[in-house]
Amino acid sequence: MHSSNEENQVPSTWTNPLAMFSLAGKRAVVTGASRGIGRALAIGLAAAGADVALVARDEAALTAVQDVILAHFPQRKVSVHICDLQQVDDITAVAEAIYSLGAVDILVNNAGMNIRTPAVDVTPAEWQAIVDTDLRGAFFVAQTFGRRMVEQRAGNIVNISSVGGHVALRTGVVYAAAKAGVIQMTKVLAIEWGKHGVRVNGIGPWYFNTPLTAELLRRPEYLADILARTPLNRVGELQELIGPTIFLASEAASYVTGQTLYVDGGMTIYGF
Ligand code: NAP
């Protein structure tokens, strides 16, 4: 017996699932967009259809990223916002400027830094610089934009943490503590804001070649140690963070919240 036409009907999301990954008509804020991972993610989100607000301290570098995006996607709206995320007043002011241009659908909470001092030598100033950027800054950025997302009852946040916040690495104790905080913050915010239609997820990268890691990756012995612990036997390419971020930021992940996706070549599951 043939099934009826009615039984053969399937939602358009099943027959055209790639449409769920589109960010057309969305507006994203990317912190730390002046170089490295944030620059790649800003360009990738724009390619997926989003307008983007670029945030960091280096105005010239941000303007260069804006130029690249507009050269490829002249129809996008791209704005540049100077902000030191260690200063909560700066975050508040920059959010006002961003919202004066329109609503925000997506926050990529990416800015971060590291100082790899052995634990016995860490100074209070180093602790403060790392934690104020990677944890305190990340929290107040999430709070500032999340508050507005809760009010508009829609929005989603992608926090960039690190495998170093999940498994123990041999350097960077303060960074590890801060990034572990970001992973846990991602879960708690997902619970608090889920009922308001706001999703909060994270990406945990392993090694990607950026200004943050270039010096380490140039050391042959250190690189060999990294590769020995990486099942895919290579460091990541920046474009390999774009797809996972678009996924989490899009309708394709509409039932995913509180998760941190490790984009790590298999490093975090490698027990031996
Ligand atoms: P990066 O090349 O050093 O870029 C860091 C970005 O953060 C820059 O755009 C910088 O902009 C911004 N930033 C730093 N401090 C800031 C502050 N106080 N206020 C405003 N912006 C600030 O680093 P990356 O490798 O792209 O790292 C991006 C994120 O990924 C970080 O959270 C990092 O911890 C994480 N991560 C990276 C790797 C990796 O292998 N690269 C691995 C795991 C996790 P300005 O200097 O212009 O302000």
Automatic annotation (TrEMBL):
It comes from the Bacteria. GO terms for molecular function: oxidoreductase activity. InterPro entries: NAD(P)-bd_dom_sf, Sc_DH/Rdtase_CS, SDR_fam. Its EC number is 1.1.1.-. The keyword Transmembrane helix does not apply. Keywords: Oxidoreductase. Belongs to the short-chain dehydrogenases/reductases (SDR) family. PANTHER family: SHORT-CHAIN DEHYDROGENASES/REDUCTASES FAMILY MEMBER. This is SDR family NAD(P)-dependent oxidoreductase. It comes from Alicyclobacillus fodiniaquatilis. The lineage of its organism: Bacteria, Bacillati, Bacillota, Bacilli, Bacillales.
